[in-house]
Write a structure and sequence with these properties.
The protein is mainly alpha-helical. 36% of the residues lie in helices and 8% in strands.
Length: 100
């Protein structure tokens, strides 16, 4: 897929790195912190509806966490109906956000 433009619901392949960091000393687990960071970016419009989220491995490397932590954070976002995941394509922000 390298060098090709993906058509359909994916709007971009370039991802701005997440500047907010998880706090290892915080009471909340890393996956809860990551889910909160991504939810804020979705609700603020920084990650607009229909946009593709960075892949699990990229998020894990950026955040310095394991891929299982990223998966659990994405599970939380799916439960909150903020993202949908399409097998072999990635996770995408839903077109219509639910009320906070």
């Amino acid at each position: 897929m390298r060098g090709k433009v993906m058509r359909g619901c994916c709007r971009t392949f370039t991802f701005a790195p997440l500047t907010e960091k998880t706090n290892p000393g915080a009471a909340a687990c890393h996956y809860e912190q990551l889910a909160s960071i991504l939810e804020r970016k979705i609700r603020s419009g920084e990650l607009p509806p229909g946009s593709r989220l960075p892949g699990e491995m990229l998020l894990a490397q950026e955040r310095g966490v394991g891929s299982s932590t990223v998966r659990r954070a994405l599970d939380i976002l799916r439960e909150r109906e903020l993202v949908v995941t399409v097998r072999a394509r990635g996770s995408f922000v839903v077109e219509e956000l639910p009320d906070a």
